[in-house]
Amino acid sequence: MKKIALLLFLSIIQTVYCQRDKENFKLDRTTRDELNIAVYEKDSTANAVVLEERGHEFVDEDNDYKFRRDIYKRIKIFDKSEFERATISINTYKTKKVIDIKAITYTIEGNKIKKTHLLEKDIYVKKMSEYWTQTSFTLPNIEEGCVIEFKYSIINPYSKIEDWVFQSDIPKIKSDFSASIPGNWKHNIRLRSYRNLDRNNTKINKGCIYIPGIGEGDCSFVEYGFDHVPAFKSEDYMLSEENFKAKVIFEPISFTSTDGRTTKYTKTWKDADKTLRKNFFDGQTSKAKFFKKNLPNQLLTIKDNFSRAEAIYTHIQEKMNWNKRYWSPEKLKVRNTYEEKTGAVDAINLTLYNALTAANIEAYLVALSTRNNGTVTKLFPSVSEFNYVIVKVVIDDKTYFLDATDKQLLFGEIPMRCLNGEGRVLDTKKGSYWELIKPSYKSYVMNNISFSFDKNQLNGKIITSKNGYYAYNERKKNNTISDDEYIENFETKYPFLEVNDFNTIPSKTLNGTFKTYVEVSIPDIEKNDLIRFNPFIVDHITKNPFKLEERHFPVDFGYSWSKSHNIKIKIPEGYIVTKMPKSKKISLPNKGGSTFLSIKQQNNQISIYAKTFLSKAIYTNKEYHYLKEFYNKMIQMQDCLIELKKQKN
Amino acid sequence: MKTYLFCIIASIFCLTANTQNFNLSSNNLPELLTNDANAIVRKHTIEITLEAVDKMVVKEFRAVTVLNKDGNKKVQAYVNYNNDTKVNNLSARVYDSNGKEIKKYSKSKFKDVSAVDGGTLYSDSRVKYLEHTPVAYPYTIIFESEYTNSTTGFIPSWYPVDTYSTSVESAEYKILNPQRLAIKTKEKNFGTYPIQKITKDPIHYKIENQPALKYENSSIGFSELMPCLLVGLNNFTLKGVPGKADNWKEFGLWMNDKLIKHNVSLNEATISEAKNLVKDIESDMDKAKAIYEFVQNKTRYISVQVGIGGWEPIPAKEVDKLGYGDCKGLTNYTKALLDAVGVESYHTLVYAPVHKDIDKDFSSLQGTHMILNLPNNGNDIWLECTSQIHPFGFLGSFTDDRNVLVITPEGGIIKRTTSYKNEDNIQTTKAKIELTKEGNVIGDVEITSKGIQYAYKFPIENKSEEDLKKYYTSDVWSYNNNLDVKSIEFQNDKDNIEFKENISVTINDYAKINENEFLFRVNVFNKNSYIPKRYRDRKFPLKIERGYKDVDEFTITIPENYSIQQLPPKKELDSKFGEYTMEIKKLDDKTLLYSKSIFIKEGVYPKTEYNSYRKFRKTIAKQENLRIALQKN
């Protein structure tokens, strides 16, 4: 939430401008042709298409010289499955407001165009929560083939201009956005697009504004437009959609008030760092003194740097309780956070940072954007895309990233949501810099399985070791369940296995590897003197997650991983092996990964070692087909059979 | 009268004085209460004072000890309110495990948010709730609230057993009725729960030392399992409108007269349009079908709840103009059109989607949804008026098989909606499968679905081609890797409630081939491998919610140079939960016929049967995975 208000506090513009620049979007642009079309030619599967949409941003003299965005849309609805397009809900933050809503539905009745207007009484405003208000309406008289047209304006007292997103889940025939911004505002304007714009103009609007006592001011005018924007379709294992949709993004650089004072937001990284410190971190970046006094002394006096850092981390992690927010909605104070033992990510990790600094550990704050939030631009200094903060420490030339909001994390482990490329490390001495945020623990699963037979029953002993994110997920899942529940869940996941013994209890401590020991049996295994079974009794991949014919976006696992099975089978006396799989190996190009199975029989024992690893976190859409095939081959490899036959005497 | 009042004052005093005579410490709690519990309701009292027919005051005191993070949601420190409600008091205090107060929340510290669900455009429902981040477990929260409501149609019922995994040390419920308003109560599922009826007048109940119950899959619904006390007034107020509920007849008369009658009229143009629509149709039901389809094409579901609008339909004329309405508005509009063409129909209150009956012996404001009843000379037909795609007279699982209240001008009548049981819910899968020598499958599949299986299926008709491909590859046949959908065709026979899918597919690398064998799973297209969760110590009876039957017939042609040798024997299972048969026959040297039928019977079975049900499903699942080997010639 703070993210929105965050840098861009109220732009209190005392000055009186005289607004001359205004775009007036008018309704009534629907044509008979638009009502008659039965299908959108460029995408015949579309059940609705945006015929035209426009947005215009400017400073509005009629509304206290606040930013104003006028929005106009016209949508053709082909099919009833898209009737929900006729319901519009606009969420606004704090003092933002929605005004001038007008809407018309167009239908054909007989041979005439019928217009049904939205009535003022059918517009609803709800206060959703302390910070958010929702304005909503639905257009009347919707039927298949109708065209809906509406406009509204948003008055924005903050200085952050919202992105304009050209792409949505339905196609658009025309999408245009323009902005006319007075010269005392400077913005970095960034366009993300998969192809060239169809309309792209920039110019200076001379004398767009009159400021009494000073004179006329100019506006910089920009205009961008696309024709025929295809629908955006999201795919599994992809990063935030926001990374891939065509859009225009505004980042304020500076604002100069009429008395000549300039506020710099992100002119240089130095300004950006300051903005972060002041507005993201509420000036709480140098509170080491408080922690020197209040941290338990036995922690501060630990000699070894690593042990001291770890002890401080564990202390903060255990003491603090995350309230599930990324940002504190109100100004935070680390002192209060520490005393109240609860807070948002920013509050807890700022507390951690100050505590580490108090313990003379080389620590830095790292601002980043989470996986859901999209990646951050590096073209110019920017702060508005950050939504998360962690801590970096350097001990004996080794770097660790820390996050104290989650009790199941190890020292040096960060939540999956933070694995989103580079973060900005705030170094007060040298200035900030980019650094890749990557996990410092390897993520793997190792299964050691040994089989033996007894009285027509197959017995298996399974020792599973999980590390990295696999171990983290287990700790998270299992920290409130009993051993009985653990076993019940195991038996539900593997219904053909019956658990006999679990004399080693799954470890729930934080020492990294999550180890389980389970003894299972499969009764009545022998039929007609034959014993047949698949030795991959746990962690057996049977479904390929990749089934698309075509992939548009990279596959992003977040981290590289491996899974292995080390299987030993004792052949019972009087039996011979009649079927067993062959050794095999398949690799991805460019050292992307490998899957193999090696098998050998020695005396009365079969040994199998099988391993699959993907060495990259991200695979491009061009590598998708290899990945899909790789999974297929791995599944076939694991779908194997061992057959033992009783020797007739 | 005076003494009586004094009595009440005395008892309120007692109750307040009592509220804290339990130990706030959460150390040394008895095992009876901590077993299987994430939270313990230490003391919960609800005290309702019916001050007038249009004024009730509800006081709640709730002390909960939370044992772990899954117990946080049992704190339930919130109060729902709307324009009729005045929240007088709201506070919470937090105690650590030693019973020491560590935090206090006043009314202004509660979050205040809109309680409107996603499907509703507007409603005045709001909730004030406590957002508390615990700093250690266990901890105890005392939540106290008091609100005044001018609607007395919904006197909070008493649910003495909270939810699963929550034990109750003590909970009390009391109704004070100084005006001696005519009041009725109904005890439901009290069974063996440790509930005491302390006094009849005032209504006063108590439960003590109720251990926590753990949730189990395939159980009877919570509302049928847990005790509940229903309370209602014969004369009540609903959003400023006086109402009557002496019995269902009275209640129906009241709804019809006060909320419905005046909203059913249409303007002349629409009436003649409706008449014109059915002018060449003979039978009443065919007329009704034409009207229903007209409504489906003209309207859509939009929910707006303002004032009494939660119970009163918006006028039919308004729906006619706007083209949208909520369940009441659309039902009412359909009825208005049916009136215009002379077909009898009635508004009907129903619980949906929760499978729950309108209580036939307890008349009060009940139900969450409205549908339309057509008496049709004793062969009731039910219409779901909020759907643009349902066949005429088809309810699906949203409202089937439950008691509903039909509102006629002669009063309310309890009826039961259509049910879709066991063999009614049949799916037939016929497939022609060609196995190529490379081990691929080329298949043509025809799936016909009826009954509730129709209900699950027919909405796919509206999916895009891309979504459909994904539906078949990742959902229906996710166990077949490398499945490619070549063509899809549907036939939706709305008259006979029958949905037919014709799909052509290929599956590469389906079989495993080695020097002398061709090994493949014989059930290519309808693998039923559901196995219920294992419980080592099942506590509740088993409920199979929905019975169904699947019949599969696959003709399989084998590749050149292979021959069919040994085939698995016929498998037949017969149990109280259903039946299973599987047979593979050799039609000729090149062709196999795989026939399978699985029938699952709905029903409730004692907990001791759970394991044998699991075994039944496990045996089936194993069969469903059966492979056969062809030998190379």
Keywords:
heterodimer; A: 649 residues; alpha+beta; Immunoglobulin-like; C8orf32 fold; Jelly Rolls; 9-stranded mixed beta sheet; 8-stranded mixed beta sheet; 11 helices; 16% helix; globular; B: 633 residues; disordered N terminus
Q: In words, what does this structure look like?
A:
Chain A is built from 11 helices and 37 strands. With 649 residues, chain A is α+β, with helices and mostly antiparallel strands. Chain A folds into 3 domains: 2-183 and 193-230, Immunoglobulin-like, CATH 2.60.40; 269-436, C8orf32 fold (Roll); 443-646, Jelly Rolls. Chain A has a 9-stranded mixed β-sheet. Chain A is globular. Helix content of chain B is 19%, strand content 39%. Chain B has an 8-stranded mixed β-sheet with strand order 5-4-9-2-1-10-13-12. Chain B has an 8-stranded mixed β-sheet with strand order 27-28-26-25-32-36-35-34. Chain B has a 5-stranded antiparallel β-sheet with strand order 22-21-20-23-24. Classes of the chains: A alpha+beta (649), B alpha+beta (633). Chains A and B meet through strand 7, strand 8, strand 17, helix 10 and helix 11 of A and strand 6, helix 10 and helix 11 of B.
